[in-house]
Amino acid sequence: MNPEPHLPRWVPTLIGVVLVLLAALAVYTGVRYRNPTLGDNIVRPKRPPAPATGGGPPGEPGPGASLVFPGESGDNAPTASDAVTGRARATISGGGAAGVTSSVRLWARRGMTTNIVPDDAMIYVNDLPIGEARQFDKPDEVYDFPAPGSYTVRIVAPGYKERVFVVTAADNATDEIARIDVKLAR
After folding, report:
1. Which residue, 17, 121, 133, 134, has fewest beta-carbon neighbours within 10 Å?
2. Cβ(68)–Cβ(78) below 8 Å
3. DSSP-assigned letters across all residues of 42-98
4. How far is Cα 142 from Cα 139, in angstroms, rounded to an integer?
5. Phi and psi, residue 89, nearest 5°
6. For residues 103 and 94, is the Cβ–Cβ distance under 8 A?
């Protein structure tokens, strides 16, 4: 009877080390690139990203440019209002026959993405139409604000109630990108 051949003792150890390294890499990349994450206070960029100054690849609109009214003169980008201060995350106004309106405040260093139902809702930034919600619904489809300051973002769709957000673009914001998640009510 022949004894069964055994693996050398170092092979299972090597397999275990490789698996542990792969798990550590998966955790690190998950912590590094999710926003917001558990690792926001663990992993920081070496330097804050520079504000967008325009000029993407040829044919690409500059930061803040409207995708509805393209133009080269820069008049198709909303102008920033003075930065909104304070800690309140929402404001409520109105009442009576007109109803109650509310706006949610968000902060970001650079821009915003959306997750809006219905996805064909129009987005207005400071009353300038910038495009449909589906144009900004992926992580690589960010609407970049043209300058620091506050921007009123209105989301409008026929047959639905309008929603309003105030996004303040500031270098000291905790999030790089503001994410607007909303399901419009009928």
Report:
1. 17
2. no
3. T---SSPPPPP-S--STTPPPTT--SSS--SSSTTSPPPBPPP-SS-SEEEEE-GGG
4. 7
5. -95, -15
6. no
Neighbouring C-beta atoms of residue 153, cutoff 10 Å = 23
CA distance 103 to 157: 17
- Nearest residue to 51 via CA among 124, 110, 101: 110
Q: How far apart are CA 3 and CA 12, in angstroms?
A: 20
Taken as a whole, the chain contains a residue count of 186
* Alpha helices, DSSP H, located in the chain: 10-33
Which residues, listed in sequence order, are joined to residue 155 by a DSSP beta bridge? Answer: 123, 163
Q: How is residue 22 annotated by DSSP?
A: H
| Residue 76 to residue 54: CA distance in whole angstroms | 13
Could you say which DSSP state residue 185 is in? -
pLDDT digits (tens), the chain, 186 positions: 566 777 788 888 999 999 999 998 888 776 555 555 555 555 555 555 555 544 444 445 555 555 555 555 555 666 665 566 655 565 565 666 656 667 788 888 888 888 888 888 899 888 888 888 888 888 788 888 888 888 888 999 989 988 888 888 888 888 888 888 888 888
Q: Is the pTM of this model over 0.70?
A: no
- Nearest-angstrom CA–CA distance, 48 and 39: 16
